[in-house]
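User: I'm preparing a small set of examples for a lab meeting where we compare how different chains pack in three dimensions. I only have the primary sequence for this one, and I'd like the structure in token form so I can line it up with the others. Please keep the answer compact; I'll paste it straight into my notes.
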Amino acid sequence: MKWIEPKKYMKKLELTEFPQPDLIRLKYPVLLCHGYGGFSMLVSPSPIHESCMRLRGHGIEAFAPNIVPYATVEIRAEQWAEVIEKISSKYGYEKFNVVAHSMGGLDMRYAISKLGIANSVASLTTIAAPHKGTSLAEIVLTAPLTVKEKLGELFDWFGESIYPGGKSDAVAAVEQLTREYVTQEFNPSHPDDKLVEYFSYSAAVGKGTKHPLNPIYKLQNQLIYHREGVNDSFVGIESAKWGEHLGTLSLSHLEQIEIQVNKERKPLVENLWRDLAMNLRDRGF
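Assistant: Understood. Below is the structure token output for the 285-residue chain.
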């Protein structure tokens, strides 16, 4: 039997003086906006629920509501604007720090530009948002028409089943994520607002990097790589840059919102959300 030195054993039991997360005091609350898709809602109250609770653990007033998961930017943006009105009315907030993941970034840029909510948004931080589109959308749209229609019907049915409050249109939403649409139609007609500070994170894993990726997403990661270069298995690095670029994460698209994260990579997720909050704090938001 191996002898364990008492001092070494007791060292492991030694208490930390302040075991709770550090408080991060922000001027404005945080609204977390999720992207396209809703299957994560089967195992979580919302796609960004875990990250929201992580921010609350730092003493930050944060919200991660749900909207229709498979719909066009216009429909989703209207719902985010309604969410802001509801939360503002309930708690008396004047402004929000909006953090938007993936398609949520386009939703919020639309809402700020077209729906008159700029006065309610102090900052917009996007994480792996397709600001210049994604070739993954183009790949999906090359599927045979019958397959595309059936998948669209399935996603629309699922989306409206888990979120009856909105009309789904999965295929139309994907069409709005192509590089041609975003760069030639969306971006020119949705300029940034001077009242809002814009920040962004990009991400890269898999091919062309040293960072691991779930094998399920290996093929799409490689397909995007051959069209756009390194990516997070959904969005390329260059596409994700908007406003002030805060850095490139070594996290996959789903790991960024704490889905399919193994124990070894948890610290990377913790660092992302802490650094994001610290940036807002240091900028006076």
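A couple of notes for your slides: Residues 18 and 201 are 30 Å apart (CA to CA). The first strand starts at residue 30 and ends at 33.

User: Perfect, thanks.
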